[in-house]
Design brief:
4 strands; about 10% strand
């Protein structure tokens, strides 16, 4: 009997497939091609011939070829415009190292704590990705105040106003009047006073003043 793959005559001797060897069985129905990246000759199944114009000897060659050729306008999902790599930049080790260096020894610009600090970008990362690692565009803010800062609440508006006031004066830390104003409003809210009114609850004033005084002493210290 002749091998179906190479044509060599052989004895079947109970073999299930009409091939003279395992190699012929595996190569039957294949065709010869060259790797699109390294040029090495490879064997591919016949059904793959109509599926692609490019063939690769392994996944490494395929990945390298894609890196060089399937980018920008040649990309499968290209829709025009520019590609924003903001997410990749924020997750990169170099950015994390840079951020850790800035936060080392820093305190929250709004409340003065040194716990759970984050970097707040004055000009948003989405609007100006090129300023993500600009030291002039970031300030340290604790996680708690940062969440409130970006909220639509009344307190969030107060924090945004406080930060704008601090930055407009070029002061890296909040001034004492700003701190007292912020703490006073916070205490008013905790004591149930109307922060929109010029007539505070005098019964709560002594306790409120004690809190503000204690906080101001800690800031001065």
């Amino acid at each position: 009997m002749n091998c179906k793959s190479c044509g060599k005559e052989f004895e079947l001797k109970g073999k299930r497939y009409p091939y003279c060897s395992e190699k012929c069985r595996k190569e039957y129905g294949k065709f010869s091609a060259n790797c699109s990246f390294c040029g090495r000759e490879i064997m591919k199944h016949r059904y793959q011939e109509s599926r692609s114009k490019n063939f690769f000897c392994d996944i490494a060659c395929k990945g390298k070829w894609h890196t060089e050729n399937i980018t920008g306008e040649n990309g499968y999902n290209w829709r025009g415009g520019s590609w924003n790599n903001r997410v990749q930049l924020l997750a990169h080790t170099s950015y994390r190292t840079w951020r850790a260096g800035l936060l080392n020894g820093a305190v929250c610009i709004l409340c003065g704590t040194d716990e759970k600090l984050e970097l707040h970008h004055i000009v948003s990362k989405a609007a100006r990705p090129d300023l993500i690692k600009d030291e002039q565009n970031v300030v340290p803010i604790c996680a708690k105040e940062h969440d409130i800062f970006h909220s639509n609440s009344c307190k969030g508006g107060e924090l945004r106003g406080l930060l704008n006031d601090i930055l407009s004066h070029g002061n890296p830390q909040p001034s004492l009047p700003n701190v007292l104003l912020y703490v006073g409003r916070k205490v008013q809210r905790l004591m149930g006073e109307d922060i929109q009114s010029d007539k505070p609850d005098t019964s709560a004033a002594p306790e409120r003043d004690d809190i503000v005084r204690a906080y101001s002493e800690r800031v001065r210290g």
